[in-house]
Fold:
Amino acid sequence: MEILQYSLRKLIAGIPLVLGVTLISFLLIVYFGPDKTYDLLGKNPTAEEIAEVRSQLGYDRPFVPRYLEYLHEVITFDFGNSESTDEKVSTILSRTIPVSIALALPGFILGNVLGVMFALLAAYFRGRWIDKFIMGFAAIGMSISFLIAIIGFQILLSSSDGLDLFPVRGWDTSTPLQYLRYVTVPTLATVFIALGYNTRFYRAVIVEEMTRDHVRTAKAFGTPPARLFYRNILKNSMIPIVTRIVFSIPFIVISGSLLLESYFGIPGIGKVTYDAIITGDQPVLKAVVALTAILFVVAQLLTDICYRAVDPRVSLK
Amino acid sequence: MIAMTAKARAKSSDILLSVRDLVVEFATDQGIVRAVDGVSFTIKAGETVGLVGESGCGKTVTGLAILGLIPSPPGRIVSGSIELQGQDLTQLSEPELRKIRGSEISMIFQEPMTALNPVFRIGSQMIDVLRRHQQLSKRQAHAAAIEMLAKVGIPDPAVRIEEYPHQLSGGMRQRVMIAMALSCGPKLLIADEPTTALDVTTQAQVIEQIIKLQSEFGMAMILITHDLGVVAETCRQAIVMYCGSVLENAPVTELFAHPRHPYTLGLLGSIPRLQADRQTKLPIISGMVPDLLHLPSGCRFADRCNKVMQQCRQQRPLLGALPDTSTKVACYDPH
Amino acid sequence: MSTMNTSAVSGIDGHGDSLWLKAARKFKRDRVGMWALFGVFIYAVIALGVVFGFWGGAWADVTGPKWAPVSAEYWFGTNIIGQDIFARALYSTRTAFEVGLLVAIGATALGAVFGAVAGFFSGTWIDEIIIWVMGVLDSVPFILLVAAIAYSLGGSPWAMHIAMIATFWIGTARLVRGEVIKLKTLEYVEAAHAIGLGKVKIIFRHILPNTFHILLVQATISFVAAIKSEVILSFLGLGVKDGMSWGLMISESTFEVLAGFFNNFIAASVLMFGLVMAFNMFSDALQDALDPRSVK
Ligand SMILES: Nc1ncnc2c1ncn2[C@@H]1O[C@H](COP(=O)(O)OP(=O)(O)OP(=O)(O)O)[C@@H](O)[C@H]1O
Ligand SMILES: [Mg+2]
Structure:
């Protein structure tokens, strides 16, 4: 009950954020965005034809009603049809989001789990060669562009110059084996890049927790290392770790895989977004932006609830 | 066999802990810091020893070294021995040391606000310690924890045990720490400035509680403090440290009546003869404490000493017993 | 007690000499940091050489056959239409510095101003609004923001720079805000209030200079982020519009690598990796040297 009330309050508090995001995106994408008038007209249009198309597109109406209309679309989550495929935007989203999740999930999980593990290892052997080795790798991972990692893994694993084990591009989830074949190379590239950042971040968090007073107290009372790690370090590190993980979810669901999907030609939301950017498909762009903002508010709520679960000092007030 | 243990016990009642020539170093960016440099002292069973000295002189590091808790890296015990009833702790493995920590030797720290784990109930933390060192069921441990909390003067222990550290005041938290430290009946308690972070009235109460429990449990204690009043009142023996080494080690009555080292004299200089004033902090002696990275080759106190001689600057005086007293002092010309 | 306080305060107000001197000394002792700085310096020389026309000028000329191998004439070979990859790689270094410096300076300046203002007025509506703006910008997907800004600027080549500045300032602003909230309670700031200095003067003359160590590190971080973003945005067609960049070279190379020709890809990747790595290391060393916890 307390949680429900709190959630409701949090969601209401998130309204200004959604308003802000929609306002910016409306201004940039629609109001000052590309003028579609001439795309819809034949050659040598008359003045009347131009005026007619402009009023059809709503360009002749003032700012406020047009923005309110967008808000109405956000609330009903009905953004009309895509300008380039004429498919309903909500249909496009519900078709492509699962693809994006199927693509991103393995890399996301591996990147974080391995990140925490390497970070624990590095933190535990702080200052020794294992630490230096892991952090050296992290530094290298952080200095390589995602694009370069993608191309590199493609050359290594999918080209005739490399091992030629996986398909070069495309997507197929008809059988688990096919899924595995298509998801491996993108996942490897994602994990390779994410690992650098994650390991570094998590190590800093864990080292910070390791040097807290209560860790010394626990040691002074004979706590063995495994228990110390679990009770005094891991549990206390969970807050920043969970925050990082939860806050990356909106971008993964919506646009995080934009590069991967457009590079490998995978029909997920990222590819749809990219195509919409290139063609100026406003209904799709408006939907994607609004969805990200809403997911962001939800992510904020989720992290707060996680805080409460981990840290008794936080109260849901 | 029985005779042996009886003999051993007879001996142990004599000397509980014996620290010999302890040297602890830390590797820092600026170089190697020798935080403890050749410290020696002994503690008899049930006895209270005060460890005093200015901030940074190595009191906490000495305490941590006894428990084998020097953070490494950057620190390490370079040499020396720490014998608990004849067993050299510096030679023990980590698992062996863990059995001793919290059961044979306990330590309570300066900062009650952060010394407990914020995400576990105090009961859980106490039960964790109790069950690690004693064969107790969950229920027995829970009962024992409540009993300990009551002993340290926490009202409603059965309720308080379910609370999180942040729900307790600083004084209460320090009492919880004490309860935890004593719960397994240690032979030695290292109390590292247990009251510095508390307000004045709480300080007095907590100190009294510790002393009461100490005699009740019959354990020895190293009381690390800045408060000479507390030392005068509670300790049998006092050790004065300066820049990582012991300058004077004497029975408290001796120390207060006849301070031998010029540094001790300076420390005591501004203390009112009546011991009641608990607020007495270490008085300020003119001059600067030397940087641990650039220690003088002779006596560390030479630059601040008003009786300094040629010899003091050339060679460090060693801690030695004064004839006809039980006082040890590291000075060429003790008072 | 009181003597301690004043010395602490003057130490911060005059951040100045002692902290910077100590940091410089510490940095000089950091071997990795010094090597990294040397690496960055080499790249900067390459970029300056391009600016002054010593090399890299012929990046757009078709001078050789298609896909010529590495030779004395074409150090890195040629690309699909016979342009000299070496010249293109050098010219791209200049582009990287241009993007990196512009974005780093812009984002850091913006972050400093907004962060300082928000921190100084923390708890008031001014702060609330700035926090709101930061939250909003943070929750717009970066690539979409670049595209949206490009739309509204009618496809301007500066859309990428502006979009990066518009998002990268936020991290800096958050840090500066936190630091300013700490600083403004210190005695010297209160003293400045007491002698009746204007708010603007207090913020910009007395508080902001003391966050300079944060700004310096943040600028290096923005620099790296800008170079890395450029590669991806250029690949997606949203980045560098005229000129040549590592991103465009890699983008070009995606067709070549499948045909088994790697020179373009390797040249751009390795050069970019070198600069980013050197800058990251430099940034780390700087952070270490300026960390007040380690500068005793
Ligand atoms: N983790 C560490 N790394 C480096 N040096 C350390 C470390 N811990 C302690 N030292 C050094 O050891 C010296 C002694 O520290 P210690 O904490 O024992 O002082 P103290 O006598 O307990 O002082 P206080 O009264 O302030 O608690 C310090 O001056 C410091 O230089
Ligand atoms: Mg101490």
Q: What stands out?
A: Chain C has one domain: 21-52+89-290. Residues 1-16 of chain C have pLDDT under 50 and may be disordered. The pocket of adenosine-5'-triphosphate (ligand 1) is lined by residues B 26, 28, 33, 35, 53, 55-61, 71, 74-75, 292 (CB under 6 Å).
